[in-house]
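Predict the structure of NAD(P)-dependent dehydrogenase (Short-subunit alcohol dehydrogenase family).
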Amino acid sequence: MPLEGLDGKVVVVSGVGPGLGQAIAVRSARAGADVVLAARTEARLDEVAEQVTRLGRKAVPVPTDIRDDEAARRLVDTALGTFGRVDALVHNAFAVPPITDLLDVDLDQVRKGFETNVLAALRLTRLFTPGLEQSRGSVVMINSAVLRHSRRTFGAYKMAKASLLALAQSLATELGPRGIRVNSVAPGYIWADSLQWYFEYLAGQRGVDPQQVYDETAATIDLRKLPEPDEIADAVVFLASGLARAVTGQCLDVNGGEYHH
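Done. Here is the predicted structure for NAD(P)-dependent dehydrogenase (Short-subunit alcohol dehydrogenase family).
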């Protein structure tokens, strides 16, 4: 049975790749949406497009560097030219900033991170605003549980994500009168390829089974389970859908209870 909420809608997803980007696209299709897929790697786009098509929905892959004005405009033109409408824009594209202390971090690398993580999201939102206004659509920005802590070496990461949250909240105020909702989803751990690889690495360093690393980590979370990409994607689908029609300017944490906010 398809999920309720996005029947006949068109969802644009940036940063499509393995893990969460793929899950957002596929869960949107399961909820009834056609999907426009944006990422720099064309092979990834084609793979996810095939999954969407198998679900009976249309998928349009558009190789895009969202930091580039011309490429971003081409994405908008392709989406509107193909479907004639856009109902939701999901910002999943992200570049990991240097994981090091702020006193030592390379400022040029921090600036590059802001280009992808914050300014590109603003660029795309501005370009899609006329289409979203017509459909009274919504924007969902993927944030992070880094908002909820200030651990060492995560300073540049938190700077970027805190700025992205401020962007989403400010856009909610600006775009609300035009009928456009803007919300955020903040995942904690995401049990997918990269985290699985990292846990295997940690287990190898300690000489233990990777399951032990998982269990120790899960023991710090209320639900004793690390969220999987589909579970986070379902929160995105909810915020993009009419089920959240009175929700804007909010950040929904999806972390199994690791942090309470």
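The domain at 10-190+228-254 is CATH 3.40.50.720 (Rossmann fold).
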